[in-house]
Amino acid sequence: MKKQSLTLALAIILSMGVFQLGIAKGTYFLLHQDKNITEVLKQVEKRFGVRFNYESDLKDLKVKNNFDINSLKKSEVAEFLKNVTLNQISVEQVGNNAYVIRTNNPTRQVKHSGKTSEMNAKYLIQQALTGKVIDSSTEEPIVGATVRLKGTNRSTQTDEQGRYSFDNVDNDVTLNISILGYHSVEITVGNNEVIKLTKADEVLEEVVVTALGIKREQKALGYAVQDIKGDQLQKVKGVDVGTTLTGRIAGLRVFNSTEFNAMPSISLRGMNPILVIDGVYYENLNLRDIPVDNIENISVLKGATATALYGSMGAGGAIMVTTKKGLDQKGVEIAVSSNNMFFSGYLALPDVQSSYSAGYGGEYNTDDEVWGDKLDIGRIYEQWNPLTKQMEESELTSKGKNNFNNFLEPGFISNNSVSFTNQGENGSIRTSINHIYNKGQYPNTKLNMTNISVSGETKISEKLNLESRFAYNRRYAPNDFGAGYNSQGYIYNILVWTGPEYDLTQFKDYWLVENEEQNWHYRAWYDNPYLSAYEKLSSELINKLNASVTLNYKVSDWGKLMIRSGYDYYGNTQEQTNPMGIYGTRGGYSGFHNKGKYWTNKQDGFATTNDLIFTANKSFSDFTVDALAGAAVFYRRDNGLIASTVNGLSIPGFYSLRNSIDPISATESKNKEMINSIYGRLSLSWRNAIFIEATGRNDWSSTLPEENRSFFYPSVSGSIVISDLMKDYKPNWLSLFKVRSSWAVTKAVPDPYEIRQAFSVTSNVWDGKSTAAYPNSIKDFTISPTQRDMTEIGADVALFDNRLYANYTRYYRLLHNVTTYATISSATGFSSRLINTEEQTMTKGHEITVGGTTIKKENFKWDIIGNLSQNLTYYHKLDPEYSADALYVKVGARADHYVTRDWERSPDGQIIHNDSGMPISATHAARLFGYSAPQWFWGLTNQFNYKDFSLSFSFDGRIKGLSYSSMNARLWQTGAHPDSDTPERYEEVVNGNRTFIGNGVKIVSGSVSYDKYGQIISDDRVFAPNDKTVSYENYWKRAYSGTQNIWDETFIKLREISLNYYVPSTMANRFMAKKASIGITGQNLFLWTKEYRFSDPDRGEEDLNSPSMRYLGFNINLTF
Amino acid sequence: MVFFNIKKMRKVINYIFIGILSTSAITSCSKFDEINSNPEASEKVTSSMIATRIIINIANQPNQKSFLQPYMLNKNVVWTEFVEGYQYNGFGTGSLSFTSLNDAHFMVEFAGTEGLAKSYEGLMYFARAVKFFEATMDLGDIPYKEALQGESEKNYFPKYDTQKDVFLGILRELEMADKAFADGDTFDGDPIYGGDTDNWRKLVNSYALNVLIQLSKRESDTDLNVKSRFKDILDNKPIFTSNDDNFELIRSDKSGQQYPFYKVGNNFTIYPIVSSEIIDRLKTRQDRRVFYYANPSAKRIKEGKSASDFDTYVGIDPSLIYDDILDIKNTDDYSKFNDRYTEIPTGEPTQQLSYAQVCFIIAEAATRGWVTESVSQWYKKGVEASMNFIYDNTPNTAQFHHGMPLDDAYVNNYVDNLTNGLPSGQEAIIEEIITQKYLASFLQSEFATYYDYRRTGYPKWKINPASSLNSEAPNKIPVRWKYPSDEFNYNSENVDEAVERQFGGVDDINQLMWILK
User: Fold this and answer.
1) ipTM for the predicted complex
2) CB contact under 8 A, B32 and A1031
3) A residues 1038-1067 closer than 8 Å to B (CB)
4) Is some CB atom of chain B closer than 8 A to the CB atom of A464?
5) pLDDT at position A696, please?
6) Which residues, other chains included, contact B26 with Cβ-Cβ below 8 Å and sequence gap of 6+?
7) For residue A195, is pLDDT > 90?
8) Which chain B residues have a beta carbon less than 8 Å from that of A585?
9) What is the model's pTM?
């Protein structure tokens, strides 16, 4: 071979001229090849961040040397390689960034697991067969690989040098070589051959991050784990990566709020997952604290089995974030990324009538309500003129019909990051700076978030490796006010309770007397919204630091020791100020005070998790043992100090504790918790196709009574890769068929001090006297932890070379021995008792993921991935004493019952009216109306690649699930509802005629009696249509509430869209960049709702939800 | 060389980590109890701190709109925010909670001396009596013997006692309270009487009179012995002798101590209107308290009427259908609260039991022949006490009395002539006494006047079936509240039994409880 290359090199030098000629003529000269394909592949790998997997015999294949890699586009890679090798190879793209290369006329045929191709065997006659197995990338020998002779029962293991040998081998022998972490190969070999195995994650990306940050081969897992690559999350960068995760992972439900500075809330199989970053659990961090550009991968561990090693913390599953670290090769890389998105319309915006003024009884006033006089018909009233700041007579007009729109400001999200990565021989360091700016939809709502992260790896010796990570987060919002009904937000102020007859834009000058009296026309409840925005302030400053150090020590070829310490600290300050003369006293962090207020909340705390883990991996003939043993210590401490002025401020506008009229109030809180643990896992596999494992963890928790302080969590799981077992019989179209099953127990501990019975003391309650109060619940000192038993079964199928794949998981989670505050008769002196209830609930779920490549052509590829999930909870067993005695609490009934009081109704569901024509309140307060959890939630992502363009968009939605539209109810109550602009109202207000009759019936005769559950015992009522004329205004003031406001949340949303263009490297090189892409991005683009009006149900509840904004913008990524 | 050092370092690091982990694990397990004790809560407190909380709990009234709820039911107030249940006789569930007393026994245990322990014991018995009284008055049968034994006896689902047994218990506990206070020393933590046990004895016995008068329909019950108990207290025990003895909280401009309807931070001041049930009766009697309870009608002032003219004061009939109330409101011809309830942080002291009420209780008992006291004397004393209380607690300016002060000259003269207004015939006299008690209790003593109405039918409040929210009996004001739903959900066996024996299985708000039969 060497000789040949030398000859070739010489030939090339000699024939340069000929070569040029050859190009001109468009002909290729085989002789003019002087480069190995490996060299080309390395360059392509480096340029596009892709991986090639190929057989060892390919490495000496020569390529033509006239290629120009700089103008190469990623989409042309396969074609390019075929071209430069003169079609001697076939190239298959596997996933986004990996390719498998095969020779077209091989002398030996390599079969990757799950793939078959025509055998082209070589006939050899031999007695003994020896060979060597090495790693394709490191070329290190692979120890302990199982080598079996196909069609026989004979197998052996590779030795320390990676060597294997067989005696008395027949002709025409095929070897099957397998080991955990590598792709199995079937190969027909000659003697003394070197066989390369490719690491599993390099091709099919089957390795996932599991509990404690340990990477495992996905097919070995008996439980559901789903991962999503960082590049999928980085296409559209909003404020929270949680939003991008919506609909992407089966079983993961994300509720996105439309409110400023509100993080999406994430639930996994109906519980709260923990956040783990690079294997370390951080108590005080959330997804918002990790810039999306730092994310390499997110792996979602869904069931309790997956997280059994985390003990009580992991009961709700885990979101495992792997951050970006070094580069594949030595060198330096600088990446710059910017995504800016701008407000471009509303998906949901509340609507109100603009025909009637504030007031009641058809008369204008500024006491309250919007049941006032008709606008724009020449009615004259004395009104406040905000410009002259005095009362003046003027006509009532609808000049304020756009008040809310005029008050809103366009939102803006700017997400920018720069990272510097330096990869050296023995380590790497990556530094990143990220800044997010978000302008909310209301004045003075601004959020600035900065993150600085440093992570590095150092190879101290051949056996010792150190990883470290450090991150600082700072978040600041000067005013987080404006949402909700009870906090008297802007919709409450502008749309619900005040009318369209004043022009809000004229109230921007909001002072009458600075810091003392506002320029406003109300004397109760409502404040000038501009004053609220700039003077009623609820600011929040969040500082977080987190750091981790991991030391990996390779004890032997089969054993590794890891010591890891994670630490996170936070120091937050919330402040609240308001001037004198305000009327809206609710909301903020602690309510506002009419005479002025300064309030502050200083919180700090830390949590630390320390693990010592020993892992071992060894194979014995067909069996591989993978084991882990570890110990952990978790400790957290949280401190809080809340201080506030009392009874107002002495000096207007001076916001300080020193300015309090009464002695200030100050209270502290201190929470401490510790958990010590030992844990272990033992996994066995047979022929890398049958897997079984068990884990156990024992915790000692500080929050439990001594006798129950120590408790154990077991788990067992198994999986069978049927497709690997049926090798000889496997149909061509089947790539993977795996079945799995698992069972795990998790236990949850109470909060700190919950088992303690101590007095709470309050100072200065009355004339300086302090009070003491005993708790209202009885503590049972023998409580034991809440237990959840999770059982899941599932199957994974891949077909047609992974063109189509599907996963299905069915799970059951039994919640029992629940530590709960059981309601007892409060005549006992206590309202509840801390016990382990006998009531049990069962959560059942389905998770279905289906994906595939719909179209795959030369330059075009269309991938679809979708998922559908269900998570519902049912009563499984009732407690004879402590379960509520109600009809909707029954074994087998859903536990998410929506129980409410309605109007009294006739058997056919019509509202019953009394003699005065008003609806009658139902006799029974608690009636089952429906269920609050969605029946299904789903997501669908499409991705198109065409040459250098890539387009992706994702939809998601929920099906069913009830919530109460506070907006609808309140708009009816106040007279602002757009549907209340009716002829009946006009008659009443303008002409003084009452013409309205409530829709429903009245009772003519007879009566009804109910049992204590509200079921009819006897009913001889006779109904007639309601015929009593009433005031339209007063009818709706009474009838606004009730079940007509309970709406089905079903919706479909176009969550994100991105169109990217990957700039060809020739062009990128012009501005010194290695890689560049530009694109258009959008978030929250389209919404369809089944019943919801006025607001976006995405959040899962409705409390005068702020307008839902559409964002569109652009994205630039540069790598130098 | 370098490698060697690293090797050494590695070992050192290993040892350090293992050391830290194992030592912290071992030492921390033993520290778990310390970790799990809250530095911000205390297992030992002083008796006075519990006493203060208990006294404020039984003496204080809620703030703002909640403060006015009972006075909507008592027809003191018309509410114009929206249709309010109590104004239109819509009743829901009552309360059956004794959680505020679950630490009363600690107050006795933590007392430093025998004498203090006695006083705190007296307070404990009194507070228990008040809480049981309020609960049984609202509901009927309640748990009594097995109540408040959640922690001590692990009795989580107490049985219900008959209302008669509950009243016997209340009267017994009031007796024990009187005895304990008689043996007790002046104690700390009392914001009302400064821990003076003589004052507390007066309160306990006056309260007993109030309990006994509620049993007027059961005056011949031989176990209760209502008449002789009443006479015994009146003859032998200290009771209230002046407004100084009132069971009331004096308000001040301190956080949490201001008058409950003071305007600062109170957006509800725009809704209440004084009821015609109050204003019309005062006008008929030419009683100047109307100038202290209400402000004049804005419309009539505009029309030139004088603020010191009775005719300038206009109440709204709270039973009018809501549409009509709003129509009147739009005419501005109605009386709002007097400024003293909203503009002065100290307002007036909030009473639970006043000397005036005790006078009317004795007058009623005398009318019923329980005691041989002078009806007219106690009746006059009651009116006088009410007027004096108002005068003494109001700034003497026209803003608050509209030029018609309740000064001594007026009060003496008015009271002297009162006997003329006292009708003849027991029933008529009782009506007059209860009506005066009602007029003396404007925005005072929460549900007390409703209890009198329920028992006697006076004052004769207007009932309008067209506006009534009492859908099953629109011509009546309900006579009780329903049991709390938590009792049906969690203590159903016991509450079902109580409902069965009292009301034939229906938790009915229109059926009479034992004391009203």
Assistant:
1) 0.92
2) no
3) 1038
4) yes
5) 92
6) none
7) no
8) 265, 267
9) 0.83
